[in-house]
Amino acid sequence: MADLSLAGKRVLLIISGGIAAYKALELIRLLRKAGVGVRAVLTRGGAEFVTPLSVQALCEDRVYTDLFSLTDESEMGHIQLSRSADLVVVAPASADLLARMAAGLADDLATTLLLATDKPVMVAPAMNVRMWHHPATIANLATLQSRGIAIVGPEAGGMACGEFGPGRLAEPDTILAAIRQRLGHAGALSGRHAVITSGPTHEAIDPVRYIANRSSGKQGHAIAQALAQAGARVTLITGPVALPEPPGVTCIPVESAAAMHAAVIAALPADIAVFCAAVADWRVVAADRKLKKSGAPPQLTLVETPDILSDIAHRAADRPALVIGFAAETENLVANATAKRARKGCDWIIANHVGAGSDVMGGDANEVVLINQDGATPWPRASKAAIAERLVSNIIKEMT
Ligand code: C5P
C-alpha cells in the first residue's frame, strides 16, 4: 500500500483575490495539521480579503507579498521561493490570475513564481458563474491543463454575488484530498512502464473514406497523464483525436487497429497496460482507389481486427503484471463486463454505460464500475480526470 502521508511535505500556497480567500486560512490550518510546511504568497487582490497577519499567524512563517521588496530578495530570492516546495497550490485562483498564468505573464510575485517554478502546480478556481463559463476562462483553463496543471473544483452552489452555479472554491478538505493524492502519488510508480491505448481507430474503406468508433480519447489521455504524474514512464498509443499530447508522455499516433496492435507489441515490456481505446472490431478489405458513386452501392467485406487487449492479456512471456480493459455496454453492464473480464483474460475491467441519453462519449464526466477479482465496485460520477486519479490510486495500491 502506498504511503499517502503528507508529513514533511512542503506547499507554496498562492492566495489570489476573491471573497473565497478566507477559505485559504482553513486550508492552511488543515495542511499544518497534516504535517505540511506551508509558505504563503498573498497577491494584492488577496490582501484585500485576508490580512497578511492572519495568514502569517497560521503559517508560522512570514507571508510573501511584494515582488520588489529588497528584504525579501535578500532573505529568499523569488526563484528560490518558487522551488522551495514540493507543490505550488493556487487557492483561490481568480479568473484574472488564471488568465495571467495562461499568458505567461510575470508582473507580480505570484505570477513570477508560477512562471519560474519547476514544481507541479495545482489551481482551485473561484469566480462568478458567468466568468467561469466565459470562453476566455474556458480557453485559459484548457491551456493550463495541457501544461499539466491540476485543477480542483470549482463546486456549484449559491455565490456571494447572489447567483447560482459552478464557481465556488472547492471546500478546503476537497483541496487537501487533491493535494494528498498529488503528493502521495509523486514518484509512487517511478521505474514502472505503462502502455495506454486511447481514442478510436480508423479503418480505411478506400484512400479517402473510413469507418470508426465514437471516442474522444479524453479518458485514456487523462489516465496517461495521471500515470505520468505518479512517476511512471508512459507510452500512449493513440488513434486520431483532437487532444493535446499529455505532458511527460511518449505519444505514438496510429490510425488502424492493426497499427495500434503493432505499436503496443513494440512498446512491450511494460508493467501496466490500460486499454482504453475504442478499437474497431472489423476492418474493411480496402479498395486501393476511391470508390465511385456510379452504379450500385459497393459491398464492403469486413474482416475481424486483432483483439489487442485479449492478445496482450494472454501473452506468456511478456504479459504486463497488471492488464486493464474497458467495457462500454448498453445493457446488463456488470454481467456483460464480468464475462468480458474472463473472456479477455485481463485483471480489471472499467465498465461504463453508454446507452441512449448517456453523455459519456466525448463528455468530460464519466460514471464507471470497477470489476476485478473481488467483484464489482461502482464509482460515483466524476470528471474523467478524477476517474483517472482514482484508477491510478488503485494501480499504486496493487503495484506497491
Ligand atoms: O470487446 P470490446 O470491444 O467491448 O472490449 C473493450 C475492451 O477491449 C477495451 O479495453 C478495448 O480497448 C479493448 N479492445 C482491444 N482490441 C480490440 C477491441 C477491443 O484492445 N480489437
- Counting helices, strands and paired strands, the structural category is alpha/beta
Instruction: Compute the CA-based radius of gyration.
Output: 24 Å
Net shape = elongated
Number of strands: 21
CATH architecture of the largest domain: 3-Layer(aba) Sandwich
The CATH topology of the largest domain turns out to be: Rossmann fold
The count of helical stretches stands at 14
Mean pLDDT: 90
State the end-to-end distance.
6 Å
Bound molecules: cytidine-5'-monophosphate
Strand content: 15-25%
CATH secondary-structure class of the largest domain: Alpha Beta
Approximately how much helix is present in the residues? 25-40%
In the residues, how many domains can be counted? 2
Main beta sheet: 8 strands, mixed
Q: Regions with pLDDT < 50 over 5+ consecutive residues?
A: none
Order of the strands making up the biggest sheet: 12-11-8-13-16-17-19-20
CATH fourth-tier homologous superfamily of the largest domain: CoaB-like
Description:
This protein is an alpha/beta fold and 400 residues long. The chain has 2 domains: 10-183, Flavin prenyltransferase-like (Rossmann fold, 3-Layer(aba) Sandwich); 193-399, Rossmann fold (3-Layer(aba) Sandwich), CATH 3.40.50.10300. The protein has 14 helices and 21 strands. Helix 5 packs across helix 8 and helix 10 crosses helix 14. It binds cytidine-5'-monophosphate.
